[in-house]
Amino acid sequence: MQGAQHRQPPLAPGRKPVPRGASRMVAKEPMSARLPKANFGFLKALFWPVLLVALGFGTYEGAQRLMPYADRPITNVNVQGDLTYISQQAVQQRIAPYIAASFFTVDLEAMRTELEQMPWIAHAEVRRVWPDQVVIRLEEQLPVARWGDEALLNNQGQAFTPRELANYEHLPQLFGPQRAQQQVMQQYQVLSQMLRPMGFSIARLELRERGSWFLTTGAGSAGPGIELLLGRDHLVEKMRRFIAIYEKTLKEQITNIARIDLRYANGLAVGWREPVAPTIAQPAVAKN
């Protein structure tokens, strides 16, 4: 039996036969497709840092060249604020060493620190104003009371020591541990508001080391000064008790009262003034 014969299908007109076996041809790729593509990502990442460095260097160089023309001497110092206890002349003398600098080199922070070391200055603000001015705004201390014998207290309970303490003997005198300045000032303000409607003022308020409070009123329309022994705690409640009893029974006799002890839980004790012995008039001697 004869083997079957394989016949190739007839080729289409105009088409070349495809080679068989290992000699088969592969279509060639274009040269641009076979070469490696250039990677510009690194250059793009490097471009912006280089540009920023160049701009910064240019800005710095321009500023250095313009500085001699822009940095002028300080020719005007404007001191603002309601000054009662210090003069502008004293302020000008205090900051004179700093004003010798130029507009951009003047040390504003050092100037502010120097001003706040003056006893009567509570707060200072210093700023530049183009082209040659320094503006200084000052806030003075507000003396409310004396602290012991050597200092004054402002309304925040902060002690300061001016030279002219003798001029402020009319202020109330507060005593206490150094750590308790603000506490004593706050207690003074509370008690003073409670006593004022009755015609009393506080001449002396003392907080002792063991925590006891002692108050002395000033002489005034309500009568001579009296001493109030308040104890350690519940000062507001004790003061309310004193006010209630004062209006009912003590008001008419206040001139005879020397001290009132409020350290009791539900009452008080009154210490009376010693009666003043009447003065005996000396008989007149007739002379011949």
Describe the secondary-structure layout.
Layout lengths: L30 H4 L6 H30 L5 E5 L7 H12 L8 H9 L4 E9 L3 E8 L2 E5 L3 E4 L4 E2 L12 E3 L5 H15 L6 E6 L5 E5 L9 E5 L3 H16 L6 E5 L7 E4 L16
Parallel strand pairs: 1-3, 4-7, 7-8, 10-11
Antiparallel strand pairs: 2-3, 4-5, 5-6, 8-9, 9-10, 11-12
Helix pairs in contact: 3-4, 5-6
Main location: membrane
InterPro entries: Cell_div_FtsQ/DivIB_C, FtsQ, FtsQ_C_sf, POTRA, POTRA_FtsQ_type
Protein name: Cell division protein FtsQ
Average pLDDT confidence is 82
Q: Kindly report the oligomeric state of this protein.
A: single chain
User: What characterizes the major β-sheet?
Assistant: 9 strands, mixed
Strand portion:
15-25%
Low-confidence residue ranges = 283-288
CATH superfamily of the domain at 141-270: Cell division protein FtsQ/DivIB
Measured on Cα atoms, how large is the radius of gyration?
47 Å
Q: What is the 3D form?
A: elongated
CATH architectural category of the domain at 141-270: 3-Layer(aba) Sandwich
Q: Based on helices, strands and strand pairing, what is the structural class?
A: alpha/beta
CATH topology of the domain at 141-270: Rossmann fold
State the share of residues found in helices, binned by percent. Answer: 25-40%
Total helical segments = 6
Number of strands: 12
- Helix/strand order, N-terminal first: HHEHHEEEEEEHEEEHEE
CATH class of the domain at 141-270: Alpha Beta
Distance between the termini: 199 Å
Family: Belongs to the FtsQ/DivIB family. FtsQ subfamily.
InterPro entries: Cell_div_FtsQ/DivIB_C (IPR005548), FtsQ (IPR026579), FtsQ_C_sf (IPR045335), POTRA (IPR034746), POTRA_FtsQ_type (IPR013685)
Transmembrane segments: 40-60
Domain POTRA: 72-141
